[in-house]
Amino acid sequence: MSASPHSLTFSTPPATPRRSSLTQLPLPSTLTASAPLPRRAPGHAPGITPSASFFRPSKPRPPSSAEPEHPLKTLKEDSRLSSDDDDHDTYPMQKSPSHISSRSPSPVASSFVPTPLKDLSRVPRDPVVRRWQQHPSRNRFFFNGRLLTGGDAPYAFIAALTVLFGIAGLYAGTTAQWWWHNQGAGGKAWVVITGYLSLMTISNMLVTAFSDPGILPRNLDLEPPYHEIEGSDPAPMPRILKVRSDVVRVKYCPTCMTYRPPRSTHCKLCDNCVDACDHHCQWVNNCIGRRNYTPFFILLFSAFTTLVLVIIQSALVFALSHESFHKTLKSSEGIGSAVIFLLSIAVIWAVGALLAYHVRLLLLNTTTIEQIRNQAHKSLTSGPAPPNPFSHGTWRRNVMAILCRPRGYSWLDPTGKVTDDMRTVNPGIGDEVV
Known about the structure:
By secondary structure, the protein is mainly alpha-helical. It has helices at about 70-90, 130-135, 155-180, 185-210, 295-320, 325-330, 330-365, 370-380, 395-405, and strands at about 125, 140, 145-150, 225, 235, 240-245, 245-250, 250-255, 260, 265, 270-275, 280, 285-290, 420. A hairpin with a 4-residue loop joins strand 2 and strand 3. A two-stranded antiparallel ribbon has the order 1-14. A two-stranded antiparallel ribbon has the order 2-3.
């Protein structure tokens, strides 16, 4: 028998207790305050928890001894942990630097070994050629370029050296012997001082004669600017340099193919441009320039002082002798002293005049060539000579600037090796393309 729809009855579900807040909701066991946090995935690095951000490592949580956390807060923490796990799956976490191994992998062997490039700008010649062998001048070189002399005839130098050694030898063999044996300690002191000055004279003469006076390098300005002059050939334009409050014109040397520095001159006898050239001295067979002017001046001063002492000592041999003049003259020491006296008198005039002239040049800080030009200027014009822009104002400063200046290195470098520039323009153009 079918039941009538009107007779059907519906049972009501059992009533559930009413909950006033979320705190009364039943929570799963995994979200209770007493339950531990989810374990980290095995793919995470040691020391990094899943709750750590990719850019901000998590800090270890201290053990809590307080009351259990609120269930709602635990639910929010679980939601955040699940989102962090998704991020870790998408972006793998980097390892902490403290846990990275300090051992680096061994380098992979490479077949490419870089070789240093050879400098082709300065390739020495084979066989070796020294610079003094290729120097285009009239100088004479000795001892593989370590010594050099001028280009003129050496007869005047040989004569001056003979006179110098002759006076020193006669003094050591005659006058010095008399003073050493007859005048006691005072005589010995005179002999030592005179001998020292004689050695200083000889050494400075050899240094002046066989050293580089300051020869300038060549081929520094191969293409100087020219200016045309009506009615004459074009000439290289000079350069204007300012020296203190004045200007100096420097000229171009067509032989050396370079602009000469101030106070430099081309010596026709040596066929070189010499820095701060004073003059060419035939008595030393060399130019007097920046590098040998100081030994040249010391040579003049020591030679003059030595001649004065030799003249005085040779004359006193006859004055202090206990025998007569004729008897003393017949002895070997007497005849030697007489010869030295006459020879020194004949030489001291020239040496003294040359020394006085260079003392004046030294006090004014000028050179012999500049002095000659000033004299020519006075003879051609009525006005005064132009001022010297190289003077330091006082004679003390001029003496210090010339005699105490450093000698400097040689621009010539005669013992150096001759090198060639083997570089080519665009070397890869001539290679065949494979």
